[in-house]
Amino acid sequence: MKSIVGENRVSINDLRRNFGEIEKMLPFVPYLTITKKGRPFATLSATPALKKELMKKTAGAFKRTELDKDSFWKEVLKKKSKKGSVKI
Q: What is the pTM assigned to this prediction?
C-alpha cells in the first residue's frame, strides 16, 4: 500500500479519506502540512499531552535487555573527537 503521507505533507482529500490511518501516525511525526490544490493550507500536529502519554507507555521498554546496561550507554554517549579525518 502506498503511503498517503509524503515528506510530512498530505492533501486535504487524502486526509478526509484516510483520517483513521493518518490519526494513528500523527503522534510519531512533528507535524503534517495539509495541502489544498497542491499548496500548503494548514498544519496539523498531535498535542504535547498525547505525545507525553505515548512516551510514558514506552518507558521501561528496554528493561532486562542489552540496552538496559549502563556500559552500553556509556559507550554510545561517549563524546567523539571531530579533529581526526573521517574514513569512508
A: 0.57
The number of distinct structural domains making up the chain is 1
Residue 82 counted as domain residue: no
Strands (E), the chain: 9-11, 32-36, 39-44
Residue with cell 511525526: 29
CA nearest 4: which of 13, 67, 41?
13
Instruction: Report the residue count for the chain.
Output: 88
The CATH number of the domain holding residue 16 is: 3.40.1620
User: Cell numbers at residue 15, please?
Assistant: 486526509
In a domain, 86, yes or no: no
Strand order in the sheet with 32-36: 9-11, 32-36, 39-44
Per-residue model confidence as pLDDT tens digits over 36-74 = 999 999 999 999 898 888 888 777 777 778 777 788 777
Hey, how many other C-beta atoms are within 10 angstroms of the C-beta on 10?
A: 19
